[in-house]
């Protein structure tokens, strides 16, 4: 196995700014969740979990770039525009 010298990584100002922005966003989300937990009661907590699940699912979709499109339910969209 060939060994090579370690690659030098340079930390750029843009990288630092991106990291700070992401960190602040995560802190604000965490604070919002804590505030929501304090305000909600038992029934609201169950509703809050489903909302949290949706937001988690939405975060994943945003991260991977998935944008679901609703499927039309008419027959012409399924088979094209064939006329009989």
Automatic annotation (TrEMBL):
Keyword field: Cell cycle, Cell division, Coiled coil, Mitosis, Nucleus, Ubl conjugation pathway
InterPro entries: APC_suCDC26 (IPR018860)
GO BP term (any one): anaphase-promoting complex-dependent catabolic process
Source superkingdom: Eukaryota
Pathway as given in its UniProt record: Protein modification; protein ubiquitination
GO cellular component: anaphase-promoting complex
Pfam families assigned: ANAPC_CDC26
Compartments where found: Nucleus
Composition bias type Basic and acidic residues, residue spans: 25-36, 51-65
PANTHER family: ANAPHASE-PROMOTING COMPLEX SUBUNIT CDC26 (PTHR28579:SF1)
Family the entry assigns: Belongs to the CDC26 family.
Protein's UniProt name: Anaphase-promoting complex subunit CDC26
Annotated organism of origin: Phrynocephalus forsythii
């Amino acid at each position: 196995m060939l060994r090579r010298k370690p690659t030098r990584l340079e930390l750029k100002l843009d990288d630092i700014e991106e990291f700070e922005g992401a960190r602040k966003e995560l802190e604000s989300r965490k604070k919002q969740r804590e505030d929501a937990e304090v305000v909600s009661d038992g029934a609201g907590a169950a509703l809050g979990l489903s909302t949290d699940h949706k937001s988690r699912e939405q975060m994943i979709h945003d991260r991977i770039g998935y944008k679901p499109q609703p499927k039309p339910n008419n027959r012409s969209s399924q088979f094209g525009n064939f006329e009989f």
